[in-house]
Design a protein that fits this description.
The complex is a heterodimer of chains A (516) and B (90).
Chain A: H1 3-13, E1 18-22, E2 25-28, H2 29-45, E3 53-57, H3 62-73, E4 77-81, H4 87-97, E5 101-104, H5 106-113, E6 124-127, E7 141-143, E8 164-169, E9 179-183, H6 184-198, E10 205-208, H7 215-227, E11 230-233, H8 240-249, E12 254-257, H9 259-267, E13 283-286, H10 293-302, E14 308-315, E15 320-325, E16 339-340, E17 344-349, E18 362-368, E19 374-375, H11 379-385, E20 386-387, E21 390-399, E22 405-410, E23 415-417, E24 420-422, H12 424-433, E25 437-447, E26 451-460, H13 467-477, E27 486-489, H14 503-515
Parallel strand pairs in A: 1-11, 3-4, 3-5, 5-6, 6-7, 10-11, 10-12, 12-13, 13-14, 26-27
Antiparallel strand pairs in A: 1-2, 8-9, 9-19, 14-15, 15-16, 17-18, 18-21, 20-21, 21-22, 23-24, 25-26
Chain B: H1 2-16, H2 30-33, H3 38-51, H4 63-66, H5 69-79
Helix pairs in contact in B: 1-3, 1-5
The chains are: A alpha/beta (516), B mainly alpha (90).
């Protein structure tokens, strides 16, 4: 089985069904499949070789979906990136992945224009909305619109399921982004496992606010295309009220987000008022990092009674997902990341790789057909995380006697304050439990006396909240040495393009603030 | 509302465009143009609430109210009761 066969099978089963709904536009399965066939044939005709890379700088939309499946049909490798990638990072990634074709939206084109010199490998740029003269460049630039036509036949190629399908760059909130190499077999295995876990069918209609270039968004795309469901694309989650309105109008059955998505839905949207207006909403799923217990508990009271909440855990290196908490156990396993999804095994190991008994803390190691083959052009980083036992996640945790896993934080995020080893996640949870903050990040600033000094940066629920109130409430949940020495209140926390809190940017801002 | 328009424009140019206002028309969509991201929208709302002594309700967080200078000026005029509902919208 190959990834693009998800689209081909659904197109042959239900050609006239709406696969994508985006603003006023609707695209059927047949249209997407035939358009992808046309573009795939063009990629081969313009001189690309199987295994060649197609760099995609596109927002969620029909162009993204056509480009992604066309690349796979042509036996090539999709390298999706945020269209807002800064030119310096884009230059690095282009030099490393040597793409032959770049497909870019207006925003992506801006960054692309600043790449100098472009990699010699580049044959052509395809632009959704060409805005400037590209004549002086050594490669031709074509309008995406000139390559949109329908063709019945896909290229006749024998593609091995183990061949590379996509390189997804990890968000890189700390350190240099790494290119995770995922094969057709990796992504197909994980998609099928998620479909079983969430009981997805062709009746499902997913509201997509997460970007497809992020592994969780990519997984939403593949799983819904595989079952013949529909994807409702909304790229304006900055205005959450408009997303909720569309969820009701389009009768969506599923919604997926990262922790900040749900923090904003709870505190900056009319979600409560929509409790009776979302009769079709079957489930919500959350992944993309730890979400505080307070937010989960509030969601359970605010979401419609019939809506199930799936708390999930995963990694780009695992094609997307590794585990979930069955909704019926969420109340009594609320701090858990759940049990492995079908086809995945997880265990806790010590520093020597020995499996630890239940209740003991060590590193979480995961194995299964969904685990990546390694990082692109980076054997050293690959060797650091892949072993015969599987993928070493870098997350510390334990398993309880019922087989449920719990995480205690990242191995490399532990802070030393005075003589104590502190996990910032525990402090963030206590701060959110104060009920005074929408979201928060805790950082350790270097301190010559104590090693690290704890500083929290948070968004208050309203303008009357003070630092002292927060610290007082924190003392109910934490010993004094764990209460941050400083709580800075801001209007919003900087996020990366996946919606995750950008710690490095917060650290820079604090240092800038201090320098003034 | 001319004063409000200018204050909003100055805030956006200084905080999101670092003083360079090329490409910012009063009708430019903040999100589509990439001038402001979702974090920036929350900062912008904080600025509006503080500077103009108004409260943006959760159900008012829609692009029609907030996604360009024109939208913001019309939305605020409505909030201040200076216009009738029929005249709003972008």
């Amino acid at each position: 089985m190959l990834i693009h066969q998800f689209l081909e099978n659904s197109a042959s089963r239900t050609p006239d069904k709406g696969a994508l709904i985006h603003g006023g536009k609707r695209a059927t399965y047949s249209r997407l499949d035939r358009s992808a066939n046309f573009l795939a044939n063009w990629l081969l005709q313009c001189g690309m070789q199987p295994g060649g890379r197609v760099l995609m700088l596109l927002e969620n939309g029909e162009e993204y979906v056509i480009s992604y499946y066309a690349t796979l049909k042509a036996g090539m490798v999709a390298v999706p990136l945020s269209p807002e990638t800064r030119s310096e990072a884009l230059q690095q990634i282009m030099m490393s992945t040597t793409p032959q074709v770049v497909i870019a939206s207006t925003k992506g084109e801006k960054a692309l224009r600043e790449i100098s010199p472009p990699p010699a490998s580049l044959i052509a740029a395809v632009l959704t909305d060409p805005t400037s003269s590209w004549q002086e460049r050594p490669f031709p630039a074509l309008a995406f619109g000139t390559l949109v036509a329908e063709e019945e036949r896909a290229p006749a190629l024998a593609i091995d399921p183990s061949s590379l399908a996509s390189i997804i760059f990890t968000s890189g909130s700390t350190g240099t982004p790494k290119g995770v190499m995922l094969s057709h077999a990796n992504i197909v295995a994980n998609s099928e496992s998620i479909i079983r876990s969430l009981e997805l069918t062709e009746a499902d209609r997913q509201m997509v606010v997460l970007p497809f270039f992020y592994v969780m968004g990519s997984s939403l795309l593949n799983t819904h295309i595989a079952v013949g469901g529909s994807l409702v694309i909304n790229n304006t989650f900055a205005y959450p009220a408009s997303v909720l309105k569309q969820m009701a109008e389009e009768e969506v059955t599923g919604f997926s987000g990262v922790p900040s998505t749900y923090a904003h839905l709870l505190h900056r949207s009319p979600l409560k008022a929509y409790r009776d207006k979302l009769p079709a909403l079957r489930y919500c799923s959350q992944a993309g990092g730890h979400m505080a217990r307070q937010i989960k508990e509030e969601l359970l009271t605010v979401l419609p009674r019939h809506t199930r909440l799936y708390v999930m855990y995963g990694a780009t290196e695992a094609s997307a997902r590794l585990s979930l908490v069955p909704p019926e156990r969420l109340a009594d396993k609320i701090d858990s990341i759940g049990v492995p999804i079908p086809g995945v095994t997880m265990k806790i190991v010590d520093a020597s790789g020995r499996e630890l008994p239940d209740g003991e803390t060590g590193e979480l190691v995961a194995a299964g057909a969904n685990i990546m083959s390694g990082y692109w052009n980076d054997t050293q980083s690959t060797a650091a995380v892949l072993s015969p036992a599987g993928y070493h996640t870098g997350d510390l945790g334990y398993r309880d006697s019922e087989g449920y896993f719990y995480l205690l934080g990242r191995r490399d995020h532990q802070l030393k304050v005075g003589g104590h080893r502190i996990n910032p996640q525990e402090i963030e949870d206590a701060l959110i439990a104060s009920g005074l903050l929408i979201e928060v990040a805790v950082l350790g600033l270097e301190d010559s006396l104590s090693g690290h000094r704890l500083v929290a940066v948070g968004v208050p629920v309203n303008g009357s909240v003070t630092e002292i109130q927060i610290k007082e409430r924190c003392l109910k949940h934490l010993p004094r040495f764990k209460v941050p020495s400083e709580v800075l209140l801001v209007a919003a926390l900087p996020k990366n393009s996946n919606g995750k809190i950008a710690l490095s940017e917060i650290r820079e801002k604090i240092e800038l603030f201090r320098a003034r | 509302m001319i004063e409000a328009r200018e204050r909003i424009r100055t805030y956006i140019v200084e905080n999101f465009l670092f003083g360079d206002d090329r490409g910012l028309e009063d009708s430019t969509s903040f999100l589509d143009s990439g001038i402001i991201d979702s974090t920036g929208i929350l900062e912008l709302i904080g600025f509006l609430e503080e500077s103009f002594a108004l409260k943006v309700a959760d159900d008012e967080l829609v692009p029609e109210n907030l996604d360009s200078i024109d939208c913001l000026v019309r939305f605020m005029a409505l909030k201040k009761g200076a216009m009738t509902a029929g005249e709003t919208g972008c």
